[in-house]
Amino acid sequence: MSLALPQWHFSPALRRGAILAGIWVLLVAGADVLAPYDPTIRSVKEVFLSPSWAHWFGTDEEGRDVFSRAIFASRLDFELAMLGVFPPFAIGTILGLLAAHGGDFGEAILKFLARSVGAFPTYLLAIPIVALVGPGLRGFLIAVALTGWVGYALKVQSETRRLKQSDFVIAGRGLGFGGFRILVLHIFPNSLLPALLLAVSDVSAMLLLGCTLGFLGLIAPAGDVEWGAMIAQGAANLDSAWWLALFPGLVVLAMATGFNLLSQGLAERFGGEG
Amino acid sequence: MPLLSVSHLSVEFHTPRGLLRAVDDVSFAIEPAEILGLVGESGVGKTVTCRALVRLLPGRNGRIASGRIDFAGRDIARLPEEELRHYRGRQIALLFQDPASQLDPILNVGDQLAEMILLQEGLDPAMAARQAAALLEQVGIDDPARLMAAYPYQLGPGLLRRVAIAQALASSPRLLIADEPTKGLDPGVQAQILRLLLDLRDRRGLAVIMISQDLGVVSQLCDSAAVMYAGRIVERAPKGDLLNRPLHPYSEALAQCLPGVAPASVPLHEIAGEPLAAGEVIPGCRFHPRCPHVIDRCRFGDVQLVEVSAWRATACLRWEDMWQ
Questions:
Q1: What is the span of the domain harbouring residue B140?
Q2: B143 in the same domain as B50
Q3: pTM of this structure
């Protein structure tokens, strides 16, 4: 006898991505329990220890356990990646909808804005903005809000453009619904899926941007643990203590890969192109 | 006085290959509580004609080039968009070919019907839900409560069609335009939907313009019928006459294509040749390349629809020969 479970198909990409993302969430939630040492305890006797059973990722120049620090760093990086997705998502979605609603004129304006922002590499725009606003999470969020919306806006705009010609939207007009009502109640919810898929893949882009800014000292100047900052710290000692940069680097790589796999799997599952 | 009267309606589309006239000088009228059939093969302009009646042409490049669409004393072809909204749904409702694509895929049936009702009358949501249930009962659904929680993708084509009809009826229109309402349905369900349309006509005095490729369905259901070919109406006739005494070779050919109407000894008929491409214009009668009765006169000039009696019109030059 077979159980009448819904036919959920988990592709390998979806499964692996979900596992990696799950590990990240676990680290964030359970850092206090999972970390073998207090990440802030310094020990003069234990500086620059190479990886061992006692210190899996070795210790740094102040004798702190790198493994524990990497676990605690998951928290700030999680905030960067997750919160970083929201401002571009919200701004891009609204701009895309309004542009498509505004017809040829609206679309021309959006195209101009998107080209203006898109002409610069994201990092080149983000770094001066953070430097200007001031380092930290707030500066990071403002920087991504100003630079990251382009992809969402173009996706939602093209989706809206397509939906405007779909039968149920024309049927809605045939029933006498107003244009704005159709936009908000019918087109917007239906154009959300591609934007959400983009947001999932954007998590890893936000992580990488956050770590890059962290590497440059623009995220955690007060000394909060953050993967990018850890890599920067290790880069200074690369010839003597290779583990300092390598392990945080691998962690970032794993987490970014995790969300890429997740978005790829979700896109396959829901038929978008991710 | 007719409810809706269309005169000399032409619809054009801008395409990369130039201006394409999909509907060319079409005239017809429909009385209250009349069911009018619009018959023809795919691509002859039936759907475009009907969509033009509420100015919702498919695609972005279409426009009404000329003609009048008189409804309740106003010319819809010249109504400003803002006023048009009061005609759409409230006076003239549209049923699309594919009921699955007509409904918003992510709203359940109840919400979709309620939205329409709330918009109209400013009721509270509970009353709107009750009205939605009543509407579903009117279209022959026994268990509206269960259906209202369902999403379009969960429903079969017959139920979807009924839901779409219920939605169209929500604002009590006077004219329903139904684009192939029985397409893709099982024969039993087809009969139910046709029965429902007749019922609505009888109970509500609803006028219906029904697009169909099936002359059999049209002759059973409709009070009158218009046959379209290559963007034009080639014949208008009251119920039955089209099948029994067609006055245009194209109608005759369509009738002969119906299995079961012709005696079993007659081999199944097909119409020779291809229909004209949308917007294609040729001199003479547009059907002449496929016509079995073609004579020299058919190949030249402009062949117009002419009234041959109070109820009938044909665009065939040889209609008198066909009469015999």
A1: 105-171
A2: no
A3: 0.81
What number of other Cβ atoms are within 10 A of residue A94's Cβ? 15
Nearest chain B alpha carbon to A166: B101
- Across the interface, whether the CB atoms of A176 and B88 are under 8 A apart is answered yes
DSSP type of residue A59: B
Q: Does B62 touch chain A (CB under 8 A)?
A: no
Residue where a domain stops, chosen among B120, B151, B171: B171
Domain count, chain B: 2
Q: Strand ranges (DSSP E) for A23-135?
A: none
Asked if A167 is an interface residue toward chain B (Cβ–Cβ < 8 A), one would say yes
Q: Are residues B167 and B287 in the same domain?
A: no
Tens of pLDDT, residues B202-242? 999 999 999 998 888 888 889 999 999 999 999 999 988 88
Residues B166 and B185 in one domain: no
Residue B124 in any domain: the answer is yes
Q: How far is A199 from chain B (nearest CA, A)?
A: 20
CATH number for the segment(s) A12-26+64-270: 1.10.3720.10
| Pair type for strands B35-39 and B207-212 | parallel
- A186 with B104: Cβ contact below 8 A: yes
Alpha-carbon torsion, ordered A170, A176, A182, A186, to 10 deg = -70
A175 and B56 within 8 Å at the Cβ level: the answer is no
B11, part of any domain? yes
| Residues in chain A within 8 Å Cβ distance of B88 | 173-176
Instruction: Please name the member of B89, B96, B105 whose beta carbon is closest to the beta carbon of A176.
Output: B89
CA–CA dist A157, A153 (Å, integer):
6
